[in-house]
Amino acid sequence: MTSRPYEVLLATLDPASRRETTLPELDRRPDPWESSMQATCECLSWRGALDNLERRQAEDALGETIYHGFPVRSRSVVVTAHALIDRGVITPEELRARMDTVRERFNRR
Questions:
Q1: Which residues contact 39 (CB under 8 A, 6 or more apart)?
Q2: pTM value?
């Protein structure tokens, strides 16, 4: 399997980040973006766009392969984006453009 369509996702991993290895690192209060992401996933499932069980199975499979270096809590977002690319909902180029727009907003502050 080629990772080329997913390079936009792989490029989001900060070289300084690392995968959690201890329970205290994993057992923490979610950041606001994590809660919003879970709500988004629930809505996608409710509307039939991306089934929760299918997404969780993809998180297990892709989280241990392509996205193994990502922190555990960020896998939902990269796997969801991966699935939406696979389904043709968004192209890698569209995703990159949207990510650039968000980064620009954060840098204006």
A1: none
A2: 0.74
- pLDDT over threshold 90, residue 32: no
In this predicted structure, what is the pLDDT of residue 18? 67
Q: Which H or E run contains 63? A: helix 52-63
- Does residue 63 contact residue 70 with C-beta atoms inside 8 Å? yes
Name the nearest CA neighbour of 79 among 91, 90, 66: 66
* Per-residue confidence (pLDDT) for residue 1, from 0 to 100: 44
Distant-in-sequence, close-in-space partners of 103: CB < 8 Å, separation ≥ 6: none
Q: What pLDDT band is residue 25 in, cutting at 50, 70 and 90?
A: low
Q: How many residues does the chain have?
A: 109
Residue 24, judged by CB atoms within 10 A of its CB (0-12, 13-18, 19+), counts as exposed
Query: What one-character DSSP code corresponds to residue 87?
Result: T
Q: Are 99 and 78 in contact (CB under 8 A)?
A: no
3-state secondary structure of 22: coil
